[in-house]
Amino acid sequence: MTAELICFERACRARYAITEVLYNCPKCGGLLEAVYEGAVPDAGQMKKTWRERRMSNAPLDQSGVWRYREFFPFLDDYRHVVTLREGNTPVLDAPVAAAYAGLKRIAFKHQGFNPTGSFKDNGMTCGAAQAMRLGMKRVACVSTGNTSASMAAYASAAGMQPVIFIPHGNISYGKLAQALEYGARTLQVEANFDQILALVRVLAERLGIYLLNSINPFRIEGQKSIMVELMDQRDWRVPDWIVLPGGNLGNTSAFGKALREMKEWGLIDRLPRLAVIQAEGSAPFYEFLHKGAGAVFTPVEHPKTLATAIKIGDPVSWPKALLEVTTTGGLVEKVSEQEIADAKAQIGLCGIGCEPASAATLAGIRKLVSAGAIDGEADVVAVLTGNVLKDPDYIYHYHTGQLKGPDGAGIRATFGNQPVVVPNDAERIAALLGA
């Protein structure tokens, strides 16, 4: 198959070579997407090949991304690939969380099992491969945490220099520590995420640095593998709903594109519905879709949420996300800081840990089930995007009743599990434990 970059805007659809260093269409400013043309491989044979590769020790086959490489054939030479054996993330049943949400059953596709602890690795391996193909020496991103950790790891593994720009004083140290450990040159800018992204795009062009934020179309191609792997794990049985957190909306774009292409290629027989969950203080996509016909997308100038992974006021991928939510008959919901914190604690009671942004999924599902938008009998898969250790301070402060929202108001430890100080006395401890 041949690969090109095509403008996402339907009124433009300008085409560019797959090797051009572009993030937006030079003609209209629209987003770009990778498009493949030519004979589609046989669906049955692809499924058989992908399953057989699980037995292989070849690095590409051991990757839960590159195992499915026929589904995003933008590379002409796989020697450019750097893999840390990303993907291969489990689908976990969570009965306590299901009951909390009002569902008969729920499964979590947990991207926190990735090498750097988040879904970003699925996209970053593809973005880094394209950077290597283009002969880039330096790559950059703006990040509130997960992207910086992932890009630093993959760039360093590939021998490139990672340069990271982060909002000063507005990042989880669990995530910042990863970027520092993986050798990234880290610049803390006194501005918010959206302001820094505009700055970095200017610097990238001036200094010849390759940008690896989710505006990069190859990141989206890699994140498509999350949906392919999910369907493979479910033996190609399509769920009723796939629910995910919404920040920069790159995953929404990637998931919808993957689902549409899987249906077009005969890999699945129908589309699941997408539900995107945003934090109340950072919900421009929700507000846009609930304004009605003729609404204009309005960024949130000062986004606020403790779920830093989705603290994005001006998501660059919203036009793509709009198409995917609309195409699947999906929904967008917003949830409070209290709802996120309580949902996170309920996920933890399943023996499953996640970062705060991930828990927005369960909080949103509970709200949608309560409103009758999702049926309690529905087959629902929620995507957990990050590892529990990404933000350990949040967990400790919640369970000890010290967690405060972005406005300074206290968040109730509804399901708190505070540690207890005890004396060095076996009898008193036995009494405390009810022995």
Characterise this structure.
The chain has 435 residues and is α/β, with parallel strands linked by helices. It has a domain at 91-116 and 220-399: 3-Layer(aba) Sandwich (Rossmann fold). Helix content is 37%, strand content 15%. The chain has 15 helices and 13 strands. It has helices spanning 43-52, 59-62, 95-101, 120-133, 146-158, 173-181, 193-207, 217-233, 250-264, 284-289, 318-327, 337-348, 356-370, 392-399, 426-432; strands at residues 2-7, 15-17, 32-37, 91-93, 106-110, 138-142, 161-167, 185-189, 210-211, 241-245, 273-279, 331-335, 380-384. Strands 4-5-13-10-11-12 form a six-stranded mixed sheet, sandwiched between helices. A four-stranded parallel sheet has the order 8-7-6-9, sandwiched between helices. Helix 6 (173-181) links the parallel strand 7 (161-167) and strand 8. Helix 4 packs across helix 8, helix 5 (146-158) packs parallel to helix 6 (173-181) and helix 9 (250-264) packs across helix 11 (318-327). The protein is globular and about 70 Å long. The mean pLDDT is 95.
Brief digest:
The chain has 15 helices and 13 strands. By secondary structure, the chain is an alpha/beta fold. It has a domain of 206 residues: Rossmann fold.
Lay out the secondary structure.
Elements: E1 2-7, E2 15-17, E3 32-37, H1 43-52, H2 59-62, E4 91-93, H3 95-101, E5 106-110, H4 120-133, E6 138-142, H5 146-158, E7 161-167, H6 173-181, E8 185-189, H7 193-207, E9 210-211, H8 217-233, E10 241-245, H9 250-264, E11 273-279, H10 284-289, H11 318-327, E12 331-335, H12 337-348, H13 356-370, E13 380-384, H14 392-399, H15 426-432
Parallel strand pairs: 5-13, 6-7, 6-9, 7-8, 10-11, 10-13, 11-12
Antiparallel strand pairs: 1-2, 1-3, 4-5
